[in-house]
Amino acid sequence: MCPGTLFPPEAAWRIARGIAAPDGAAREALNDAWWRRLCGADGEFLVAVLGHRIGGNDSWWTRVRHAGIGVPGLTGGPGFVALSLDGQVLVAEVPVAGGSHVTALDRLPERLEEAAQAAGRETEVERAEVWAAVPGPHAWPLHWAEGIGSNSAATDELLIGLLDVEDGFLHGCDRPAVLDAAVAHPDPQVRSRPADAFRPKLTSHQWIRLVRAEPSPAQRVLWAQHACAWGVELPEDLYDDLLAGPSRAAAAELPALPARCLADLAVDTDPRVRATACARWEDLTAPLRERLLTDPDSAVRTAALLAHHTGVPMPREVFVALPDPRQALERCRLAPELEAELVRDGDTEVRQVLAANPRLDAHGVAALAKDPQAAIRAAVALRPDLTEEQRAAVRHDFDPTGMSHTLPWVEDLHGDADAMRRLAASSHPLIRRSVARARHLPPDVVARLARDDDRVVPLFLAESCEDAPPDLLLEVWRWWDGSLSHPDRPRSHPNFPRAGLLRYIADPSGRMRRLALDDPESAPADVARLAVDPEAEVRRRAAEDPRLSPADAVRLLNDPDGGVRDAAVRNPRLPVRVLAGLLHDRDTACPAVANPAIPLPVLHRILTAAAAAVAGAARH
Fold first, then answer.
1. Does residue 560 sit within a domain?
2. 595: three-class secondary structure by DSSP
3. Residue range 404-460, pLDDT digits in tens
4. Which residues are registered as beta bridge partners of 334?
5. Residue 115 and residue 149 in one domain
6. 518 and 581 together in one domain
7. Based on the domain organization, do 498 and 618 belong to the same domain?
8. Do both 575 and 512 map to the same domain?
9. How many domains does the chain have?
C-alpha cells in the first residue's frame, strides 16, 4: 500500500483534534493493546508527526515498523497520528491547552460511515444552534479573511467591507459594485488589485475612474497604459491632464494620443518627448518633420530619420551612419541597392531581421524565401504580404508543440469574413491557429477549422470562437479541460452540449463520466454514484454538485485526493455541525469560509472577527 492513498492525514488530524470525530473514540492512555491492534503481522503501520515529514517522504504518512513491545516512544512530543495498514485502526495524541488529546479508534471505516450518516440527519433547530455559536472561541480569523471573498453567497455590501481587511479576492471578482468601490478606495494597494489581474474585469468607465483617482503621476500613466492595452478609449481631457503632469514623457507614449497634441510634443523642451512624437510621423506637419530631422539632440534626429525612411528609401550613407542599424532593418524602407546587398551578403542576424521587415520589397522577400537558414525562411512564411500560394512555396519548419501566439496582423483581420476564408485555408498552422482565435467566424470557416489536421486549431476554436459547434466542443473536451488564459473552456462554452450527457456515466474515460452530472436529466442518485468513482477527478465533480447528499459530503471530507476534500468542504450540503468544526480548524478554515451555506449574519460576524484580527496583527 502506498502511504496516503488509504486515508488522508488531514482527516486523521481532524479526528485527533476532536473535530467531527466519530462517537466512540477512546479517551484513554495508548496502552500496548492498542498498539497490537495497530501493527500488522510484521509490526508495520503508518505514522504522521505534526509539522514534520520523516525521511524526505513526499507524503505526511510514513510507513514504519514497531519491532519492540509495549508503547512506542512517540507520545509527549509534537503530536502524531498512526494508522494501521488496512485503515481499520487509528491512534493519536495531539497537544492541546493544558495537556494532550488522546484518540483511539478501531473499525475506522465503519465508524466514519456511521458518523457521516448521523451527521446528515441534523434538524433545523440543531443547525440554528450551531450557527448561533459561530464564531466560537477557537477561531482562525486570519484564515477567514483570506477565504471569505470566495464565498458566492457573500453580498456586495459584505465584500465591500472586506476590502479593508483582505483584498486578494479582487483578482477574480467581477461584481460591478465591488469593483466600483475598489477603484475608489483610498488605499492604493486595494485600487491596484483589480487592474493587476491577468484578465481584468474592469469596465472602461472603471478604468477611467481608476486613472483619474490615482494621486501618483507615474502610476496614473501606468494605469492609462494598461487601460489602453485592454482597448479602453480614454477621454481627450484625460490625455491633456496626463500630459500636463510630471510624467509627461511617459504619457507622450500612449498609443491613442489625440493628433492635436502632437504639435506641442514635437517642440517640447524634453528631447525624450520630441523623440516620442516621431512615432506619429504621418500625423505631423511638414515643417515639424523638417524641424525634428535637424533637431540638436542626436537621439531625436535618429528617431526622426527612422520615421522619415519608413516612406522614403534610406540610402547607404544614412544607414551606415546610424548608431544602431537594427531599427532600420526592422522597419525602414531601404534603397534598392542597399537592400539587395544586405539580403545577399548580410550576416544571419541581419537577414533574420530583414525577413520580418514589412517594407522589404518583393525581390528581397523572394530571395529570403529561399535562404539557406531555416529560421529566416520561417519568418518569411509568416509575412502578411504573401499570397497563400507564395506562402505554401516557402520551405519552412514549424514545431506544432511550441507555444503559439496570435499573429497581430491576422487578429487585425478578424472582422473581415473574406480574409478569414482565405487565411483559414493557409498552409501555415500558425495562421490557421490565429484565425481560430476570432470571436466570430462565418459558418463555412468554422466547419473548415473544426476538422483541421493540427489539433491546436480546433482547440483554439473551442476556446475563443462563440460559433464553435457542440460536437467539436465535446470532442475537444475528451483531451483538454482548460488553459490559464481560458480556464473554463470548452465545458463552459455556451454551445457546449448538455442534453444526452448522462449516457457517459459508465464511460471508460473519467473525463467523460465527469460530464454526466451536467445533463439536465441527471439525478441525486447519479451524484451518489460518481461520489464513489475510482477516479479522483470524477469524485471531485460529484463533490462540487449541490445535489450531493449530506452523508456523501461528509464522506468525501476523508477522500485521499486533496482536490476532492476541498470541494467537499465548500459543498452547501455539508452538515452544519461538521462545517462549523471545519471553520474552527486551522487547516480547513480558509476553504470552509467559502461555503455558500453559511448564513449572511454569520458571514458578517466572521468578517468582524477577521477585521479585528487583521487590525491587531497590524498593530504588532
1. yes
2. coil
3. 899 999 999 999 999 999 999 999 999 999 999 999 999 999 999 999 999 999 999
4. 314
5. no
6. yes
7. yes
8. yes
9. 4
Read off the pLDDT of residues 190-201 as tens digits, 9 standing for 90 and up. 998 998 877 788
CA dist 290 and 286 (Å) reads: 6
Contact 82, 45 (CB under 8 A): yes
Mean pLDDT for 54-69 is: 70
**What's the grid cell of residue 495?**
454551445
Q: Which triple of cell numbers denotes residue 183?
A: 477603484
Of 414, 405, 413, which Cα lies nearest the Cα of 433? 405
The SS3 of residue 299 is: helix
On whether the CB atoms of residues 353 and 339 are closer than 8 A, the answer is no
3-state class of 392 per DSSP? helix
- According to DSSP, the residues that pair with 91 across neighbouring strands are 82, 104
Beginning with the edge strand found earlier in the chain, give each strand of the sheet holding 80-83 in spatial order.
62-65, 44-49, 80-83, 90-96, 99-105
Q: Can you give the residue range of the structural domain that contains 71? A: 9-119
267: number of Cβ within 10 Å: 14
Residue whose C-alpha is closest to residue 392's, from 349, 448, 434, 432: 432
Q: What is the arithmetic mean of pLDDT over 323-348? A: 94
How many residues would you count in the chain? 620
- Contacts of 468-471 spanning 24+ positions with Cβ under 8 A: 468/493, 468/495, 469/495, 470/495, 470/496, 470/497, 471/497
Residue 77 lies in a domain: yes
CA dist., res. 568 & res. 33, Å (int): 35
- Domain identity same for 502 and 581: yes
User: Which pTM does this prediction carry?
Assistant: 0.84
Count of C-beta atoms within a 10 Å radius of residue 180: 17
Q: Which residue has the cell 475612474?
A: 209
Nearest C-alpha neighbor of 489 from the set 464, 455, 458: 464
- Is the preceding omega at residue 490 within 30 degrees of 0, hence cis? yes
Give the whole-angstrom CA distance, residue 348 versus residue 339: 14
In whole angstroms, what is the distance from residue 602 CA to residue 608 CA? 10
- Whether residue 617 sits in one domain with residue 501: yes
- The reply to whether 503 and 542 lie within a common domain is yes
pLDDT band at 1 (very low <50, low <70, confident <90, very high): very low
Residue 436 lies in a domain: yes
Q: What percent of the chain has pLDDT over 70?
A: 94
Q: Residue 204 falls within a domain, yes or no?
A: no
Coil, strand or helix at 74? coil
- Distance, CA of 254 to CA of 147 (rounded, Å): 38
The yes-or-no verdict on residue 602 having pLDDT over 90 is yes
Query: DSSP for 467-479?
Result: T--HHHHHHHHTT
Instruction: Break the chain down into helix, strand, coil percent, rounded to 5.
Output: 50, 5, 45
Amino acid occupying residue 68 = G
Please indicate, yes or no, whether residues 619 and 532 belong to a single structural domain of this protein.
yes
**Could you read off the pLDDT of 94-120 as tens digits, one per residue?**
877 677 778 888 898 898 898 899 888
Q: Is the peptide bond before 135 cis (omega within 30 degrees of 0)?
A: yes
- Whether residue 258 contacts residue 237, with contact meaning beta carbons closer than 8 Å, is answered with no
Domain boundary (431, 454, 484) is at 484
CA of 373: how far to CAs of 55, 218, 248, 355, 412, in Å? 52, 44, 44, 11, 29
CB-based contact 314:333 (threshold 8 Å): yes
